[in-house]
Amino acid sequence: MFGPNRSFLRSSQLTVPQLHSFFKDVAALKANVENGWPLDNLLSRSPRERVATLLFLEPSTRTRMSFEMACLRLGVQVSLFGDASNASTAKGETAADTFLNLKSMEPDVMIIRHGGDGDLETVIENSDVPVINAGQGAVGHPTQALLDAFTIQEAGFAFKDVRVLFVGDLKYSRVAHSDIELFQRLGMQVGAVCPAHLRWDEQKDIRYFQSLADGLKWSNVAMGLRIQKERHGAEATKIDLDEYVRAFRLDRGSLQNLAKDAFIMHPGPFVPMVDMHPEVLKDPRCLVHKQVTNGVYVRMVLLAIVLGLWKGSFNESA
Ligand code: NCD
C-alpha cells in the first residue's frame, strides 16, 4: 500500500479492509492516550531517534499543529520549516529544490503541504524518504479524509447508513475530493449543495440538491466547506456573498432542516458569517472540535505505520 518509499500521498492507497483495521487501531490508541497508559504495547520500538520534517508551503493551523502534536505524543522529533517568506524560497529557490535540500538532511519522514506545483510533485513521487501529504493544492488532503471518516464512525454510524451532504465549494476543496473518494468506497452516500459553477463534475455518484433545506433533510451528516477563493482565479467574481450566505450558510435557521440525531462537521477553517455561523459550534450535533481531536490520533497511527513502528492490528498487505 505505501509502495517502496512508504509514502502516503492519496486516500485511495488504503483498501477498505485496511481502512477498517486502521480505524480500529486509532480507537485503541485514543483510549490508550486518554487513559494515560504508556504507548509501549502499541509500538515495536521507541520513536525517539526518529525525526519528522514538516514543510508547509501553504497556510495551515490545524493540520500543521496536529502533525506536530502527533509527533510529540509519539516521541518523534520535529524539524519545522517555519515561514517561507523568511527562507530561501524568498530568494527565488523553487519549492522542489527546497524539498530536495530538506530531504538531503535525511529525516525519517517528510510531511508536506503545497499548492500543487508540478516539479515538486515529481520529486515527491520519486522521494526515497517517506512523504505524507498534508494538503496538495485542490487535489487532495488524505489525512483529513481519514480523520473525517473516523469521526463519523466514532459518532456511532455504520458507514452504509451515512448520507453526507457537502455544502459549498466542491470543485476546489481538496478536503471534499479526498473525503468523497474515501467515503464512497466505505459505502457512504454523498450529496451536495453548491453554486452551479462549484460542482465537482469529474466525480460520479454525487447527488446534487436544489436547496440547502432539501439536502439537509436528506442527510445525516452535514459537512460545511470554505469557499477556496485563493484557487478561483477568473471565477472569483462569480460569487455574490450576500446571495451565497442566504443560500448556503450553515446556521441555526438552516440547520433546523437537519435531523436531531444527525451531525454537523467542517474541516476548518470556517469563515464566520459566510460558510458557517459560529453559533453552530454550540449545537449539540456539532463534531467540529472532535474532528480536530481525532486528527492527532489518526496522524499518530499513520506516522507510526509509515515509520515501521506500529504493532496494532493494521495489516499492510490486507
Ligand atoms: C483545509 C485545507 O487546508 O485544505 N483545512 C484543513 O486542512 N483542515 C480546508 C480549507 O482551507 O478550507
Précis, in short:
34% of the residues lie in helices and 14% in strands. By secondary structure, it is α/β, with parallel strands linked by helices.
Unreliable stretches, pLDDT < 50, 5 or more residues? none
Instruction: Evaluate the radius of gyration.
Output: 19 Å
The ligands found in this model are: N-carbamoyl-L-aspartate
Q: What kind of assembly state do the chains in view correspond to?
A: single chain
Count of helical regions = 9
- The average pLDDT is 94
Proportion in β-strands:
5-15%
Distance between the termini: 9 Å
Main beta sheet, described? 5 strands, parallel
Order of helices and strands, N to C? HEHEHEHEHEHEEHEHEH
Physical arrangement of strands within the biggest beta sheet:
7-6-5-8-9
Structural class, from helix and strand content?
alpha/beta
Q: What percent of residues adopt helix (DSSP H or I)?
A: 25-40%
3D shape: globular
Give the number of DSSP strands: 9
What does this structure look like?
The protein has 318 residues and is an alpha/beta fold. 34% of the residues lie in helices and 14% in strands. It has 9 helices and 9 strands. It has helices at 16-34, 62-74, 95-104, 118-125, 142-154, 174-185, 212-218, 241-248, 288-306, and strands at residues 51-56, 77-81, 109-114, 131-136, 163-167, 189-193, 206-208, 221-224, 263-265. A 5-stranded parallel β-sheet has the order 7-6-5-8-9, sandwiched between helices. 43% of the residues are buried. N-carbamoyl-L-aspartate (NCD) is lined by residues 62-63, 135, 141, 144, 174-175, 226, 267-268.
